[in-house]
Specification:
Elements lengths: L1 E4 L5 H14 L3 E4 L5 H10 L6 H13 L5 E3 L2 E4 L8 H4 L1 H8 L5 E3 L2 E3 L3 H12 L6 H17 L11 E7 L1 H4 L8 H7 L2 E4 L6 H8 L9 H15 L5 E7 L3 H14 L4 E6 L5 H22 L7
Parallel strand pairs: 1-2, 1-3, 3-5, 4-6, 7-8, 7-9, 9-10
Length: 306
């Protein structure tokens, strides 16, 4: 049995779990290549125009796999925490893909509720039945996948830079280098270090969110709001860059909340879609970094030249 796993959306966060689970069941795991122009072009071709860039890219990853596997995993991630949900497009992702891409193989589309090991195992049991009927084998594969996932660390924490920024946004915008045009590398080349939310204590994020009138309904809204507002309030870094997909409904609200809270703290929003030009993005990054450098020199009483 060949199981296809697309390298889109939450793959960068949870690939150890998926890859280990299906491998332990005895399946041959086939992943798509890293996002490139061909993946993007196929995604744009087969996805609805109204979808955001990450959803279109996911379609491209699925298309690249559909003729190479017997069954394909389309994660319908519903919840990562109780009383919170992921982007609504995740809820209908399998239907979008299966209705838009022709000649699809069988797909694993069961909802994923990762609020507890018990709830997550419900998905694993149903998904595992597509490979084997052996319940003991499924439980063993699940336990091994959990162990590997718990040992897996994501996040960026650069060191050795005089100027450092918080890089925020949905993880698939931060960790897909094709989507964001290698923004981390570009910043490093400009002499700027990057730190992501994984290196801020979850309790601090929760505390910041409590200042809102109502707790955010969406997981990414909670994380990004708590991370960026704490960075600005405590003046932990020199600025914030938020990567947002054009047409993202959640970000349209989250960004307004953040802008209201951070005030005049250096804050750059980078909107990306399939039409975003690299030259324009470079210009905005360079201008933002130039502003941060001047601010750094002034605050540290370092003479400027020119």
């Amino acid at each position: 049995m060949k199981v296809g796993i697309p390298k889109g959306l939450m793959y960068d966060k949870y690939n150890p779990f998926l890859n280990t689970f299906f491998s332990e069941l005895g399946a041959e795991v086939i992943t798509s290549v890293d996002t490139d122009k061909e993946i993007l072009d196929e995604g744009v071709k087969y996805c609805v125009d109204e979808a955001c860039l990450p959803i279109k890219i996911f379609h491209g990853h699925v298309y690249s796999l559909k003729d190479k596997c017997d069954i394909i995993v389309i994660p319908r991630i519903m919840q990562l925490r109780k009383r919170e949900y992921i982007c609504p497009k995740f809820c209908g992702l399998p239907e979008m893909v299966l209705n838009n891409i022709p000649d699809m193989p069988k797909a694993i589309t069961e909802p994923i509720y990762a609020t507890s090991e018990y709830d997550l195992f419900k998905w694993a049991k149903k998904a595992g039945k597509t490979i084997t009927k052996n319940n003991f084998k499924i439980r063993k594969a699940f336990n091994e996948a959990l162990l590997v996932q718990k040992e897996y660390k994501t996040g960026i924490k650069d060191e050795g830079y005089a100027i450092n920024i918080a890089l925020s946004g949905h993880p698939y915008n931060i960790y897909d280098n094709y989507t964001n045009m290698n923004v981390v590398k570009k910043l490093n080349n400009l002499g700027v270090g990057v730190i992501t939310e994984e290196y801020l204590d979850e309790g601090i994020i929760e505390k910041e969110v409590k200042s809102l009138y109502k707790k955010p309904f969406w997981t990414f809204a909670r994380i990004n709001y708590g991370f960026t507002t704490n960075v600005s309030k405590e003046n932990l870094l020199d600025g914030i860059i938020y990567i947002s997909s054009f047409n993202c409904g959640i970000d349209s609200v989250t960004l307004e909340l953040i802008k209201h809270k951070v005030g005049d703290y250096p804050f750059l929003i980078l909107k990306v879609d399939e039409h975003t030009g690299e030259a324009g993005l470079d210009t905005r990054l360079e201008a933002f970094v130039d502003m941060l450098e001047r601010r750094y020199l002034i605050e540290n009483n370092i003479p400027t030249h020119g």
